[in-house]
Amino acid sequence: MKSLPLADPGTPDTRSAGRYLLFVMRSQGWVLVVTIGFGIVWMVAQALMPAIIGRAIDDGITTGDTSQLLFWATMLLAAGVIQAAAGIFRHRFSVTMWLDAAYRTVQLVSRKAAALGATLPKRVATGEVVSVGANDIAHVGNSVDVLGRAAGSVVAFLVVAAILLEASTTLGLVVLIGLPALLIAIGPLLKPLQQRNLRARELQGELNNLAGDIVAGLRVLRGIGGEEVFHRRYVRESQRVRDAGVRVARLQSILDALQILLPGVFVVFVVWLGARFAMQGEISPGELVAFYGYAVFLVMPLRTATEFANKMIRARVAASRVVAVLALERDFAEPEHPSPEPSNNTLIDADSGFVAEEGQLTALVSEQPADTARIADRLGRFAPGHVTLGGVPLSELATDVIRRRILVSDTASTLFSGDLRDELDVRRRDDRAEELALSRAIDAASADDVLVALPDGLDSRVEERGRTFSGGQRQRIVLARALVADPDVLVMVEPTSAVDAHTEARIAERLREARSGRTTVVVTASPLVLDRADQVAFVAHGQVAAVGTHRELLAAVPAYRQTVTRGEGEDAT
Amino acid sequence: MRQILPVADGADVRRYARRMARRYPRDLLVSLGLHALAAISGLVAPWLIGDLVQDVDQGTTTAHIDTVVFVIGAFLLAQTLLTRWARYQSFKLGEKVLADLREDFVENALELPVGTVERAGTGDLLTRTSRDVEALGWSVRFAVPETIIAAVTAVFTVVAVLLVGLWVLVPLLLGVPVLWLGTRWYLARAKDGYLRENASYAEINATLAETVEGARTVEALQLGGRRRRRMDNDLRESYLAERYTLYLRTVWFPIVEVGYLVPTVATLLFGGWLYSQGHTSLGAVTAATLYVQQLVDPIDRLISWLDEFQVGGASLARLLGVAQVPDDRAVSGRQPEADDIRADEVRFSYLEGRDVLHGVDLELRPGERLAMVGPSGAGKSTLGRLLAGIHPPRTGSVTVGGVGLTELPLDDLRGRVALVTQEHHVFAGTLRDNLALAVEIDGDEHDASDERLRAALEAVDAWEWVAALSDGLDTVVGSGGLRLTDAQAQQLALARLVLADPHTLVLDEATSLIDPRAARHLERSLGAVLSGRTVVAIAHRLHTAHDADRVAVVEDGVISEIGSHHELVESDGSYAALWESWHGDGVRA
Q: Which among A279, B76, B321, B538 could disulfide-bond with A264, CB atoms 3.0 to 4.6 Å apart, if both were Cys?
């Protein structure tokens, strides 16, 4: 067996869902061929068993020839063993292909998501991409898993048809024409069944959402009340799901019954013809038993054919969702001829007139928080604009260079799950430097108390999105992470909005020290932080209206004073 | 993941399953009876074909063949109709039971002790709600009916075989030890193997979700390579889990196949020998062989559903566990005589031996506005929860009108004290639904109730944006609806509180996500509506403290300073120092 996951999932064909599935199948290489081979041996061995039983009855039992009986019994045993062996090999290779297809798809999607970065949430709902991992990879996997069995079914069907054709043209034709006809006969029922199933699943999905909603809001419900209302609503929805399920059951049970009736009719017909032939001496009693065996066996390829069709349809739908993500392109194309990296770190936003001098701590305040968030986006080239770093326009720099030099840590920054140490030190250096940088950053972010409360300190686990931390704790860990990364230019948006005044005062004091000599921009309205900045730029209507120290601006610019003292100027004096 | 909620044990799961089975005895009997009849009808064909082979061997007429085939056809029709009816009945029963199961679970979740909900968070519960309900749904919808059908069919097929001749028991029993031992070996390992496999896919999904939801951060911090390695690691784990279950199946499948094969071959051999000795007929040997082959299908379905049952059982155990959380309130029946809340010598710990509060005394004056400030981790939120009656103190007491808060039934407590935290939630539904959680809105007096809702929204400065929505109070919000900002969500949470109208409110950073300038305005208009109510505000913004009647500084699990803003500024303690640095330029209050 090959080793998974692959180091390189390859370059997918994203022109259409069908082409993507073909890409996945082609990628299986010889495994696909071997699986189909085993699938054929497995099914044919099974198809031949009725013939062997028939011969055992004819040559062994009715004649009373013990050696013949023993011979055919041994043949039956051999066919059974071959079937079991081929079956398990087919299964193992099929599973390998399933895993290859599913893993390959999730690798491609997750790599694409990382490569798209900030572009991704602008183009697709994140839920859609996540559901690729939850549902679609399995469907893509099924499309290759079913191939071995499908191939075996077709061959086994032809073998049985040939055997019957040899015994009797009528019987052979009945199989060759009758069986596919039966397959088509069930068709009309499948569509409404699928629709009802879809409806039931939709309702089930809504019910799950409601339950999730109840649980997520359980604090509110238990704290303020409303359990009765929500319980009643849940019961109502739950009963609707039940009704939809019963509607599915009505059709499903008809389909199940038809799956007995249609092959059954076929079996009865074959037995009737067979018995007449046997009576006329055209076939032996053992052959009659064999005919019955074939007719019963043929139900299996019939089912596999239906399954194959279903799985392919679903795989196409899933692949189309996969392709929709894989075909996305980034917002900003890389410059064709990137400029050389500037040595200087002065950052200038021409659109607002904002300047962050090299090596200084510059604060950015605005009457409208949205204005400063936009400026921060431009500074990190998350939005188009006319920004220069050391005199070079960002549009002429390679994205890698921009990301390495300028780090924007905004309020939407998320924590990832993993060991806290790893999550803090995202640009891993050697161990000694790491320890020192970590403890400095944690100190500067005033996050020591977060660490103390953790069972294993830095080696504790951070849960998804850091959800076990409070808002204030999360914010300080994000801040520490940005400080550990130690970029040439650090742009922080409201880094202390969720921490208490005591802590904010400490952070404001230590931040300066931690970033001394480096270019730093802080978007904030907190006087505690503003007072520590070298320069404060006050933005009104998207433009820098005044520049100076906190105290200078307080004294000279009434609008600034109004903004940072949070409207308490009139009564706080 | 922190798992604070219990998991039911095997005995509880079995007891519950038995109770469920007995809840609808009629439906269950009808369903079983129909399946039995369908199975019997399906067994007629091999019998008659056995006879037919014998008749053909000994010479017969066309008319006889036609009659026998006609009878086979008639039973086929009966089997079809019975199957349709039986399946429908059992699907219906399954849906009914499944609805009961999930409704029971949600009911139990809604009755979880409020202290547990606050402490455990909702992660574990969310997993149970989504994954376990789904896994159980799969079991009840498919595994239970399929198993019942397979079991019924198998039993009647064995009966039919024995009617053909007791001698068939010998070859049949040859297969039993093989199947028994192989399946026992497999089942002992399968559940854990498949659970591990499922967990590995949950991990893959979580990693993908993190990458996707944090895509911007991934780009900002250049985490692409890291995320790729993480995913590849998860896949490697998943591959190991898959390899293990594949190994289990590689052993088990062939054993089972042999277990099916042995009886067929043995029936042929033994039957052939008996026939040659004149002990049985050709028809019987044929019928027996066909029956033994026909037995493979139900047996196979029966044992392949067994591990599904195990997985379903594990899910059921987690769902039932929710009902086993002991109530942390000890309702005494005593009624408070007044509305004053006080804490005496309060100590509290979440983990044994690690007290978070070290002897807090606090008396809330009815109608006052008390601000709590202090560094993170000093115990402000914990004290807030205790004052709101969420947890009982480890030692000491928190009382309202002389009665311990956790002695009051929850409904009663809510009428007196309520807590709003930073964690907010917008329910999927209309704004009206979201607000009316706590109050019975009278359907007949729609205008009057709208007035109440409007007043509450005005008190939290939210009426302006609500009125601007084209559907106003009927706007659908929450997941799937209009997405509210964090600030708007906090306003909703506060409006709920205004509607609930308790005499004491604990606000834990309840305005922290609202723009600082707007927050101050909100607090003032809220203050006007809440006049006469006691308010404890835990805040990180100093203007909240400035506006309060008294300020309590919480440091290291005790109240280190308490008094009015002016008193504390005068006393030159840690609050004064903070206020000083906050104002920086000496704008003193």
A: B76
CB neighbour list of residue B184: distance below 8 Å, 6 or more residues apart: none
Q: Residue B388: exposed, middle, or buried by beta-carbon count in 10 A (0-12, 13-18, 19+)?
A: buried
Mean pLDDT, residues B336-345 taken together: 89
Residues A74/B268, Cβ–Cβ less than 8 Å: no
Buried b (16+ CB within 10 A) or exposed e, B227-236: bbebbbebbe
Report the SS3 class of residue A5.
Answer: coil
- How many other C-beta atoms are found inside a 10 Å radius of the C-beta of residue B351? 9
Q: What was the pLDDT predicted at A573?
A: 33
Strands A347-349 and A354-356: antiparallel
Q: Which residues is B348 bridged to in the sheet?
A: B357
Chain B: give the shortest CA distance to residue A16, in Å.
23
> How crowded is residue A522: how many other Cβ atoms within 10 Å of its Cβ?
27
Local structure of B366: helix, strand or coil? coil
| Encoded tokens for B374 | 């202090």
Is residue B460 within 8 Å of residue B494, measured between CB atoms? yes
CA gap B4, B128 in Å, rounded: 13
Question: Token pair for residue A550?
Answer: 């906190």
What angle do the packed helices A285-297 and B282-321 form, to 10 degrees? 20
Q: If DSSP states are collapsed to H, E and C, what string results for B395-449?
A: EEEEEECCEEHHHCCHHHHHHHEEEECCCCCCCCEEHHHHHCCCCCCCCCCHHHH
Tell me the C-alpha distance between A268 and A263, whole Å.
Answer: 9
Q: Residues A377, A418: contact at Cβ < 8 Å?
A: no
Q: Which residues are CB-contacts of A527 (< 8 A; sequence separation ≥ 6)?
A: A550, A564, A565, B582, B583, B584
Residue A57: DSSP 8-state: I
CA distances from A138 to A98, A107, A198, A314, A315 (A): 8, 13, 18, 10, 9
Count of other CB atoms within 10 angstroms of residue A285:
25
Q: Give the sheet arrangement for strand B558-563, strand by strand.
A: B417-420, B504-508, B534-538, B369-373, B550-555, B558-563
Interface contact A64-B275, CB threshold 8 A: yes
Contact yes or no for B87 and A257 at CB 8 A: yes
Report the alpha-carbon distance of residue A518 to residue B487 in Å, rounded: 34
Contact B402, B340 (CB under 8 A): no
Beta bridge pairs of residue A158: none
Q: pLDDT tens digits, residue range B87-98?
A: 999 889 989 988
The span from the CA of B396 to the CA of B387, in Å, is 12
Concatenating the DSSP letter of every residue in A467-529 gives TTS-HHHHHHHHHHHHHHH--SEEEEESTTTTS-HHHHHHHHHHHHHHTTTSEEEEE---HHH
| pLDDT > 60? residue B588 | no
The alpha-carbon gap from B303 to the nearest alpha carbon of chain A, in Å, equals 17
Residue A369 binned pLDDT confidence (cut-offs 50, 70, 90): confident
Interface contact B73-A268, CB threshold 8 A: yes
Could A208 and B250 be called an inter-chain contact, meaning their C-beta atoms sit closer than 8 Å?
no
The chain-wide mean pLDDT, for chain A, equals 88
Spatial CB neighbours of A11, under 8 Å, sequence gap ≥ 6:
none
Nearest to A217 among B76, B427, B436 (CB): B427
Rounded to two decimals, what is the model's pTM? 0.82
ipTM over 0.95 threshold = no
Distance CA B520, CA B525 (A): 9
Question: What SS3 state is found at B371?
Answer: strand
- What stretches of B40-121 adopt beta strand conformation (E)? none
Phi, then psi, of A408 in degrees rounded to 5 = -105, 120
Neighbours of B25 (CB within 10 A): 9
In Å, how far from its chain's centre is CA A143?
18
Report the Cα–Cα distance between both ends of chain A, in Å, rounded: 78
The C-alpha of A463 sits at a distance from chain B's nearest C-alpha, in angstroms, of: 7
